[in-house]
Design a protein that fits this description.
By secondary structure, the chain is α/β, with parallel strands linked by helices. The chain has 2 domains: 2-171 and 222-248, Rossmann fold, CATH 3.40.50.720; 174-220 and 251-317, UDP-galactose 4-epimerase, domain 1, CATH 3.90.25. The protein has helices at residues 11-22, 55-65, 79-84, 86-106, 140-159, 190-200, 225-238, 256-267, 291-297, 306-317, and strands at residues 2-6, 27-31, 45-49, 67-72, 111-117, 162-168, 170-172, 203-207, 219-220, 222-224, 244-248, 254-255, 272-276. Helix 1 crosses helix 7 (225-238). The structure holds nicotinamide-adenine-dinucleotide (NAD).
């Protein structure tokens, strides 16, 4: 039996594929390459270039490849773009997942791991954020992800499709081999923005230094992509008859300025920055509690320090 990775040519998907292959799983990737990278694909994973909305193709893959579980990364995820063009997000996130779930339902595939996000919480009620914090997204991107979580809930109740929804906080870093890394276009994530600026001798913008935090810049919780990949494998291996929702972060907040300082140490270069106005919809502080996945699945992150996360990203960025 094989695992279908939807969006496996993207940043996180390609890292999960790599870790699954190391554990000898039989892997099949579907990606329409809208944001993916052919060079991130592994020769040991069979690749189908196509869209998860193409039910004929997905059903053929399920049948031909004997798929029994799915890991679903395929989505658009630019918060700012989702504010300007929510239709694009409802289409590619909600409708595409609906189509994928229909293909699973019709072909008796009963297991899915889904990439959700901290954006489902909006402005959190308390820090660190636990999974029972009320969900209240403040942008269409987060709204599409919680809509999908609800759809998963009802597809489980009615059709018995079991799921784990993983709510990632800020994913960063790269595989230690240096062969794959984080490359979005446009890039909106802080660590790759900083590292590209170092490499190309550019100035970065820091959005707001008047937040109610010790140095005035936003605080986020960073998780290494390889630790995140390990959580997907645990979720796949331990998902049984009860669907689950887990946060994934490091229970540790780092401000934008702290990341800038850590990146200066890792790269040995001064980082040029200017202060720009706050962005709409950026909460001051987002820190995860990941106790639930640690307690229930035994997840243990290995690359927790900003230095480890940034140096692995730098290892990839300085050569790409
Ligand atoms: N990167 C983060 O920090 C972060 C945080 C929280 C949640 N997430 C979620 O994790 C997932 C992966 O994020 P990423 O950073 O790797 O993004 P990414 O853009 O690098 O990867 C997504 C992949 O899905 C593919 N894709 C998109 N729509 C598709 C479709 N309709 N059919 C087939 N393929 C399609 C893209 O080509 C791309 O390769 C996304 O669902 C995202 O919302 C990411």
């Amino acid at each position: 039996m094989s695992i279908l990775i939807c969006g496996g040519a993207g940043y996180i998907g390609s890292h999960v594929v790599l870790e699954l292959i190391k554990k000898n799983y039989d892997i099949v990737v579907i990606d329409n390459l809208s944001n993916g990278h052919k060079e991130f694909l592994q020769k040991d994973a069979r690749f189908y270039e196509g869209d998860i909305r193409d039910e004929k193709l997905v059903e053929k893959i399920i049948h031909d490849e004997k798929i029994d579980s799915v890991v679903h990364f395929a989505a658009f995820s630019l918060v700012g773009e989702s504010m300007i063009n929510p239709a694009k997000y409802y289409d590619n996130n909600v409708l595409a997942t609906f189509s994928l779930l229909n293909s699973l339902r019709k072909n008796n595939v009963k297991k899915i791991i889904f990439s959700s996000t901290a954006a489902v919480y909006g402005e959190p009620q308390s820090i660190p954020i636990t999974e029972d914090n009320p969900v209240n997204p403040i942008n269409p991107y987060g709204e599409t992800k919680i809509t999908i979580e609800k759809m998963l809930h009802w597809f489980d109740k009615a059709y018995g499709i079991k799921y784990v929804a993983l709510r990632y906080f800020n994913v960063a870093g790269a595989d230690e081999s240096g062969q794959i890394g984080e490359a979005h276009n446009p890039e909106t994530h802080l660590i790759p923005i900083i590292l590209k600026a170092v490499r190309d001798n550019k100035t970065i913008k820091i959005f707001g230094n008047d937040y109610p935090t010790p140095d005035g810049t936003c605080i986020r919780d960073y998780i290494h992509v390889t630790d995140l990949a390990a959580a997907h494998i645990l979720a796949l291996e331990k998902l049984s008859d009860q669907s689950k929702i887990y946060n994934l972060g490091n229970n540790k907040g780092l401000s934008v300025m702290e990341i800038v300082k850590a990146a200066e140490i890792v790269t040995g270069k001064k980082i040029n920055y200017e202060i720009a106005p706050r962005r709409v919809g950026d909460p001051a502080i987002l820190i995860a509690s990941s106790e639930k996945i640690k307690n229930e699945l035994g997840w243990q992150p290995k690359f927790c320090t900003p230095e480890k996360i940034i140096s692995s990203a730098w290892n990839w960025h300085k050569n790409h």
